[in-house]
Amino acid sequence: MLLGEIFELVQLVFVVAFTVFLANCVDYDILFANKFVNHTDSSKVTLPDAFLPVDVCSARIHDNVFVIFILIISGVFWLHRLVKFIYNICCYWEIRSFYINALKMTMADIPYFTWQEVQARIIEIQKEHQICIHKKELTELDIYHRILRFKNYMVAMVNKSLLPVRFCLPLLGNTVFYTRGLKYNFELIFFWGPGSLFENEWSLKPEYKRGGNRLELADRLSSRILWIGIANLLLCPVILIWQILYAFFSYTEVIKREPGSLGARCWSLYGRFYLRHFNELDHELMSRLSKGYKASSKYMNCFMSPLLTVVAKNVAFFAGSILAVLIALTIYDEDVLAVEHVLSSITLLGVCITICRSFIPDKHMVYCPEQLLKVILAHIHYMPDHWQGNAHRYETRDEFAQLFQYKAVFILEELLSPVITPFILIFCLRRKSLEIIDFFRNFTVDVVGVGDTCSFAQMDVRQHGHPAWMSAGKTEASIYQQAEDGKTELSLMHFAITNPHWQPPRESTHFISLLKEKVHREAAAVQQGVIAENPAFTSTHSQSDSEPRSLIANLLMGPPSLASLHLGREGSINPVSIGVSEGASALHSISPVSTSLHLRGSYPSARLPRPDHPAVVAGRAMTGSGTDARTISSGSSAWEGQLTSMILSEYASTEMSIHALYMHEMHKQQSRGEVSRHTWHRQESDESSESVNEDIEAARNFPRSSTFPTTSHQEGPAQQSSSQRRYGGASDPVSGSFRAQRTPRMPMGGWSEENQMGRHHDPVPEEGSEDELPPQIHKVI
């Protein structure tokens, strides 16, 4: 990390200095042979002959005001990065000391440790040394909250459609614009910049936790966004030049070496946030998306235009013919290259042929869009409802392209970002300032030992579950409080599978247990040959013998586990055939033990079929003590430890794929005939017949939004205590207990008052004092 930052500083100096040198210190007439150079020794012109003398070069720089301005701005930015680098040195030294002294890990051994083992050691030393003084024991969720505090907020804001900003362009249709520059500005405004919503890295400012002055705070945030947008507009020329130069120096050599690289695809920044689970680390996300990359590329290649294919074939033929002649002439006599534009023509023709080949599909490959989309879903875990059954449609392809875009589109968006970002901040984000204020108040909780975190990151099915995602009867969340697209339920399953020792809340434990029992019951039905209509079999076993089936790897017939792998003498892995019965027993072992609320992950101990199996011998040291094998990465050697971790990681990935497919099938069956509410097609207002009349009567004269629920006056028992606080929302003024309310769903921050079309109302009725809006009190241990 330290070496990377050193080279970033060097890169900045190099790009600025080299660009100024090329613009002011090179005589291009000599370089292009347009000017005669008189040599005394009659030698050929060399490259240094095109360099201007130092005094001439210095004079040209001093006379150019724009160059001086660029140098000043670059110098200030470089000094800022230098100060940050010096600060990071201290942080990195503390991290290194912590690993060596507290975790007992040497620098040479760190590459052989997995994250699960590092996390397990942190939890153990908390019991001995109390590195967190506010609580006796740390949980896996506490550690993830500390690392991903701000990222969980960003994931939740994307999930609730607060971010990013969407546009409906005349030719491009519905478009999402989300770049690294825009993301940097969002984080600057919300989290760590001057005047941000957080007063430090772990605490939201107190005024944003109260609802009494929400309009004033929204105006203040709107003004701050305006000034940051103006600053972006003023710095736009400098940032744009930097983006162009950096892209030129970064991608020119790659494009020359691999012209088809621009036709390759990558996961967009928006896609990474839309597909990210709550409490998912960067390496976990990248591993999951990388597994779905191949199937995603093949799916996008299904939509080759026959007309474009015919044109590409013929263009490639003509360009190839000319290129073949030029190459043959060059082989015959190399002096052909000395002819003007011959070398350039060879290069351009080669690029043209490579681009044309990217539009010509492989004639031996059979594509199945619907099945490929199932394979993609098994890895990325999130998908709008209307994609299923419509994988062959271009509308689905275009929406998926927002998540999985061309590399060329990614580069173009980054180049345009300095120009577009100021206008998004000034004209689009400012209008959402009230919604943003309400979001941070309503969805911030204070967790003991962790600080203020996003309430969605608690993955509490009761607070944020969605009835259409198997949470019916377990959730008390209103429509506004529900996470979209099954984000709470899928994130909960992913975290529980990744961290099998973690103990979720009671409602979440019941949800996980019920889900895993259903999956086991369906797998047992497959074992017995009872394969009536059931989601698990429909979503995984109905694959063809092509790419989807091989990529799913027979999830029900035998997921990769220690029981299904034979470790050879030299560490080779030999698959052992597994029948349906062993697959069902594997799924059965996933289910929580009925006598314990702990979600154990002792996969080898639960799945090894016989004690003399080679995998049992290899994992006996782990399973004998009852320790979760996924938290152990060291065996008799570093290679064995890494091999074991790899096998168990693949098993966990396969397990999550099974549950994701199953949950989507169950959601599809449950919501069949209902209007789906997904990112691309959410209604602006979801009216609930249970509470429309009551809400209108209770708040007829009070302007409100769905992010600012009115206080109910019904009394209820106080059911929760006070070590976690939820700010805002609806609470009982007497007991402080939380009650889920069904309110008409409006756009977040949108007013629901008659005869008032403006967003800010003047005069505004009484907002209510802070005493009238007591914070809700909850407890999380």
From TrEMBL:
State where composition is biased (Polar residues): 703-725
InterPro entries for this protein:
Autophagy-rel_prot_9
Q: Which residues cross the membrane?
A: 12-33, 61-79, 225-249, 307-329, 341-360
| Membrane topology category | Multi-pass membrane protein
Which Pfam families does the record associate with it? ATG9
- Basic and acidic residues biased stretches: 674-685
Is Endoplasmic reticulum among this UniProt entry's keywords? yes
What Gene Ontology cellular-component terms does the record carry?
A: autophagosome membrane; endoplasmic reticulum membrane; Golgi apparatus; late endosome membrane; mitochondrial membrane; phagophore assembly site membrane; recycling endosome membrane
Q: Does the keyword Transmembrane apply?
A: yes
Might you name a Gene Ontology BP term for this protein? autophagy of mitochondrion
Q: Where in the cell is it found?
A: Cytoplasmic vesicle, Autophagosome membrane; Endoplasmic reticulum membrane; Golgi apparatus, trans-Golgi network membrane; Late endosome membrane
Keywords assigned: Acetylation, Autophagy, Cytoplasmic vesicle, Endoplasmic reticulum, Endosome, Glycoprotein, Golgi apparatus, Lipid transport, Membrane, Mitochondrion, Phosphoprotein, Transmembrane, Transmembrane helix, Transport, Ubl conjugation
Query: Its catalytic activity?
Result: a 1,2-diacyl-sn-glycero-3-phosphocholine(in) = a 1,2-diacyl-sn-glycero-3-phosphocholine(out); a 1,2-diacyl-sn-glycero-3-phosphoethanolamine(in) = a 1,2-diacyl-sn-glycero-3-phosphoethanolamine(out); a 1,2-diacyl-sn-glycero-3-phospho-L-serine(in) = a 1,2-diacyl-sn-glycero-3-phospho-L-serine(out)
Acidic residues compositional bias, start-end: 686-696
Question: Where is it predominantly found?
Answer: membrane
Q: Where is this region: Disordered?
A: 669-781
Q: Which family does it belong to?
A: Belongs to the ATG9 family.
Instruction: Provide the function of this protein.
Output: Phospholipid scramblase involved in autophagy by mediating autophagosomal membrane expansion. Cycles between the preautophagosomal structure/phagophore assembly site (PAS) and the cytoplasmic vesicle pool and supplies membrane for the growing autophagosome. Lipid scramblase activity plays a key role in preautophagosomal structure/phagophore assembly by distributing the phospholipids that arrive through ATG2 (ATG2A or ATG2B) from the cytoplasmic to the luminal leaflet of the bilayer, thereby driving autophagosomal membrane expansion.
Tell me the protein's name.
Autophagy-related protein 9
**Species this chain originates from:** Cyprinus carpio carpio
